[in-house]
């Protein structure tokens, strides 16, 4: 037992949630409303949201950059774990989804802790560099359009501090990364960034089967 990661049956996944998840009511309400949306598959799963919050607490992170807001579920989890004076900058291109995010952030009392920027993420990240935010962020969480991942990763390497953490979500893409017949743009982009991070000697990294695959990359230099 224990030689490889478990495959989770529905029953085992339910057990995991029952014995792990401590989801605040407002966070649960946001998740449930998002689940009724057509694009609900884009939402961070609850156990991963809670894990992100724990990472924020573990690192005592005060400056977080989120690339991809959607309805604000991941940002809400992280904001609730921020220490005094902590701030999240969240980037997205869709104002419609972000209206829901703002509503729930307000309900949770964390709206002032989250700075939402509506613009293409690569433009926003370059603007942050122009604003002297290089080597600034403790955590950068990338969960946006997959074709942009390689660009976002390279920009994140400039924005995150030495010893800071870059997280890339959906890096297993439902298992499609091993399907050689799937040459779609998204899966090819994910394969490319996975290879890039794995070979990047600037980071200490690990790709973990959390949610749809989550890569941890700590900037070393």
Quick overview of this protein structure:
This protein is of the alpha/beta class and 221 residues long.
Structure description:
This protein is α/β, with parallel strands linked by helices and 221 residues long. It has a single domain (10-219), classed as 3-Layer(aba) Sandwich (Rossmann fold), CATH 3.40.50.150. 42% of the residues lie in helices and 20% in strands. It has eight helices and seven strands. A seven-stranded mixed sheet has the order 3-2-1-4-5-7-6, with helices on both faces. Helix 3 runs parallel beside helix 4 and helix 6 (121-130) runs parallel beside helix 7 (149-159). The radius of gyration is 17 Å and the shape is globular. The chain starts with 9 loop residues before the first helix and ends with a strand. The mean pLDDT is 95.
């Amino acid at each position: 037992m224990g030689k490889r990661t478990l495959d989770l049956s529905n029953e085992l996944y339910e057990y995991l949630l029952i014995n792990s998840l401590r989801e605040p009511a407002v966070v649960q309400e946001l998740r449930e409303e998002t689940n009724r949306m057509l694009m609900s598959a884009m939402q961070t799963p609850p156990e991963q949201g809670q894990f992100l919050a724990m990472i924020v607490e573990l690192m005592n992170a005060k400056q977080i950059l989120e690339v991809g807001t959607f309805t604000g579920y991941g940002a809400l989890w992280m904001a609730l774990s921020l220490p005094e004076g902590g701030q999240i900058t969240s980037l997205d291109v869709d104002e419609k989804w972000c209206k829901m995010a703002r509503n729930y952030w307000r309900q949770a009392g964390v709206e002032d802790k989250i700075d939402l920027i509506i613009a293409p993420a690569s433009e926003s990240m370059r603007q942050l560099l122009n604003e002297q935010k290089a080597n600034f962020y403790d955590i950068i969480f990338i969960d946006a359009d997959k074709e942009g991942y390689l660009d976002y990763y390279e920009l994140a390497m400039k924005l995150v501090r030495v010893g800071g953490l870059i997280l890339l979500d959906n890096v297993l893409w439902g298992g499609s990364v091993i399907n050689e017949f799937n040459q779609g743009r998204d899966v090819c982009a994910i394969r490319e960034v996975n290879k890039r991070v794995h070979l990047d000697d600037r980071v200490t990294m690990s790709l973990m089967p959390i949610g749809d695959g989550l890569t941890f990359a700590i900037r070393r230099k």
